[in-house]
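hey
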């Protein structure tokens, strides 16, 4: 394969190089496959075929391994440079199938549509919702208002949080205001759809985090990510 202008050709920092030391493909091929997988509606076998058309022999299992190894590094770096979100949140959960069973991806956006946070849970209950709210607040600060649907588990979780707070979070139930988060789910589900079903809960959480990171970059949520840099360049900048 000839040089691809959108992929970087440089040396990774030592910590990331340690993760990749046993992977025997060129850096630009590895990063390109990881980005394509979390950015577009592609299966692992799609990527294997696309690389073959470019004269690069890459097994789909290798791409999966690269994603699982590298995406946590991208997410950790992104969270250090994530733009602050607003204090009015719209929260909802959507369904993700893992090993033939539905799991629940908790998500929220602010009123401008910026992603607040996300968390995949095995169950849809008060405990899962509370874990999500605690994670979102820990990473993004305290909201003034959270808008939810009529799911009683979400309301119970927020009630439990408010009991121990000096300044309670205002809770609203308004399906119309929550349209923005329901629409935002579609961007994630569109990428997930060709992946032909997840087989492992832990791996699913990692892959979804990569999809969410790319989605946030597209929405301009990477601090100092704008200017003339493309979305691809912003993504690569997280680790090089």
């Amino acid at each position: 394969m000839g040089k691809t202008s959108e992929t970087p050709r440089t040396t990774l920092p030592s910590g990331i190089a340690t993760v990749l030391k046993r992977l025997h493909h060129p850096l630009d091929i590895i990063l390109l496959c990881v980005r394509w997988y979390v950015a577009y509606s592609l299966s692992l076998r799609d990527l294997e075929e696309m690389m073959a058309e470019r004269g690069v022999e890459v097994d789909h299992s290798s791409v999966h391994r690269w994603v699982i190894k590298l995406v946590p590094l991208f997410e950790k770096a992104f969270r250090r440079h994530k733009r602050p979100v607003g204090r009015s949140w719209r929260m909802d959960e959507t369904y993700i199938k893992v090993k033939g069973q539905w799991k629940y991806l908790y998500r929220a956006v602010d009123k401008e549509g910026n992603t607040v946070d996300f968390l995949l849970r095995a169950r849809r209950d008060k405990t899962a919702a509370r874990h999500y709210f605690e994670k979102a607040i820990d990473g993004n600060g305290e909201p003034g208002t959270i808008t939810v649907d009529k799911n009683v588990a979400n309301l119970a979780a927020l009630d439990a949080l408010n009991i121990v707070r000096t300044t309670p979070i205002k809770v609203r139930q308004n399906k119309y205001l929550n349209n923005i988060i329901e629409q935002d789910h579609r961007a994630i589900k569109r990428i997930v759809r060709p992946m032909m079903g997840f087989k492992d809960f832990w791996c699913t959480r990692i892959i979804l985090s990569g999809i969410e990171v790319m989605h946030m970059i597209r929405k301009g949520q990477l601090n100092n990510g704008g200017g003339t840099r493309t979305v691809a360049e912003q993504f690569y900048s997280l680790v090089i």
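The longest strand covers residues 88-98. Confidence is low (pLDDT under 50) at residues 1-9.
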